[in-house]
Amino acid sequence: MSDVVLTDVSDRIGTVTMNRPEARNALHADLRSTLPKVLKAMDDDEDVDVIILTGTDPAFCAGLDLKELGSGGNRLDGGGARQSVDEVVVTKPWPDLTKPVIGAVNGVAITGGFELALNCSFLIASDRARFADTHSRVGVMPGWGLTVLLPQAVGVRKAREMSTTGNFLDAHAALLFGLVNHVVPHEELLPFTRSIATDIIGNDQRGVRRMLETYDAVTGTTVADGWKVERRMSGEWQAMGFDPAEVERRRTAIMERGRQQTKS
């Protein structure tokens, strides 16, 4: 596997680390392609009961690689997992998995990186974690379920605010709104997350996986149409085309704004 994703298996915990620290783990083509394969391999590994997804410091994931996108390379294709939802093909960041995926959010999780976090079973945040949906600032539409999953986590009114302003939510506000389950000091993030994983491992694993399957089935009764609507509207938006030069122009402004908003 590419070194843009690091893996470790110990004590029945599989840790998957996005590893592009120089680019804040931005989702370029290689990472978008590799990550779902690694997660699926962990899900298939009989020595793994719980998966932890994190990033190499200083970021969890800064989202789509705007430098790559702004250069006109690779556009928005590649990565993720396509599947049918009620006869409509939708795209998720990885295939449906049977095991819990705990997101250990060690820094910023922005736009596509925010969608990665939202697709985890639940989230543990470092006190350095920050969350933002900047799709509207870049001029692209979400395609990995943000408009489905974010309202589930924080409520539709807060979700609308986050998506239309592009403003950051810090770790403690994320806890207040129910986006994350715990906030811990940065150096305690992985040890604490592993302790939660160990609690899960102590249970009947067939029961754990069936419980997750049941949660997915129950929530799917109310959000399946949401996945179809997001896919349709995202496709229509992309079909109108976008200007790579305009994306590049916006990239610098977004980075500077993000630096200002994520200052401790």
Reported for the largest beta sheet, the result is: 6 strands, mixed
| Percent of residues in beta strands | 15-25%
Pick out the low-confidence regions. Answer: none
**Tally of alpha and pi helices:** 10
Give the overall shape.
globular
CATH homologous superfamily designation: 2-enoyl-CoA Hydratase, Chain A, domain 1
Strands side by side in the biggest sheet? 1-2-3-6-8-11
The CATH class, by name, is: Alpha Beta
**Share in helix:** 40-55%
Structural class: alpha/beta
In short:
The chain has 264 residues and is an alpha/beta fold. 47% of the residues lie in helices and 19% in strands. The model has no long low-confidence stretch (mean pLDDT 87).
Write the layout of secondary structure elements.
Layout: E1 5-10, E2 13-18, H1 29-44, E3 50-55, H2 66-70, E4 81-85, E5 88-92, E6 101-105, E7 108-110, H3 112-118, E8 122-126, E9 130-132, H4 135-138, H5 146-154, H6 156-165, E10 169-170, H7 171-176, E11 182-184, H8 189-201, H9 205-239, H10 244-261
Parallel strand pairs: 2-3, 3-6, 6-8, 7-9, 8-11
Antiparallel strand pairs: 1-2, 4-5, 9-10
